[in-house]
Write a structure and sequence with these properties.
160 residues, Pnp Oxidase, Chain A, six-stranded antiparallel β-barrel, globular
Length: 160
C-alpha cells in the first residue's frame, strides 16, 4: 500500500500571517482565549539553533500527566516537526501554563488509534484535517485513520 502524500503546501503570505496570529496571543499572555484545543510549542531551529514558536492543535491532552499529543498537519515537511526530530526538548504553553517536555514521534499504529479517538470527539476537525492531507474527507474507520496517520505524523509531548 502506498503511503499518502501531503497535498497541502506550506502557507505563504496572508495565510501564513493568519496562522501565526495565535503565537501573538500567547506572547500577550492571552493564550487562554484558545482554550485547551491549541498549544504553543517552543522548539529549537535545526539550522539556526534559535528558539522557534508554533501553535498547533491538540489531538489529546491528559490533564493528569500533562502529556499532550499533537499532529503535524503539513506532514513531515513542517519546519517545527523537522526541528523536534533534531532537538526533542521543547517548552509547551497551554492556556496560562508553561512546562518543559520531550517530543517523541508516535508509531503509525498508535497514531491511528489516537486519530480514531480524536475523530469520535471532533468529527468536523478530523474531516478538515483529512481533506487537507489526503484530498478527501475520511471516516473514523481503522483503515482511514491509519491512512491519515501515515501522512500526518503524531507527536507525544511528555513533561520533563
Amino acid at each position: 500500500m502506498a503511503t499518502a502524500t501531503t497535498r497541502g503546501k506550506k502557507p505563504r503570505g496572508l495565510m501564513r500571517l493568519f496562522l501565526r496570529f495565535p503565537i501573538w496571543l500567547y506572547r500577550l499572555r492571552l493564550g487562554w482565549l484558545l482554550g485547551d484545543r491549541f498549544v504553543m510549542l517552543q522548539h529549537t531551529g535545526r539550522k539556526s539553533g534559535l528558539p522557534r514558536y508554533t501553535v498547533v492543535e491538540v489531538v489529546r491532552h491528559d490533564q493528569t500527566s500533562d502529556e499532550v499529543i499533537i499532529a503535524s498537519g503539513w506532514g513531515e515537511k513542517s519546519d517545527w516537526f523537522q526541528n523536534i526530530q533534531k532537538t526533542p526538548a521543547v517548552t509547551l504553553s497551554l492556556g496560562r501554563r508553561r512546562w518543559p517536555a520531550q517530543a517523541n514521534r508516535l508509531p503509525v499504529v498508535e497514531a491511528a488509534q489516537e486519530l480514531a479517538d480524536y475523530a469520535r470527539r471532533h468529527p468536523t476537525a478530523f474531516a478538515n484535517l483529512s481533506k487537507m492531507m489526503i484530498g478527501r474527507q475520511l471516516e473514523a474507520t481503522d483503515a482511514d485513520c491509519r491512512l491519515l496517520a501515515e501522512s500526518a505524523p503524531l507527536v507525544r509531548l511528555v513533561p520533563g
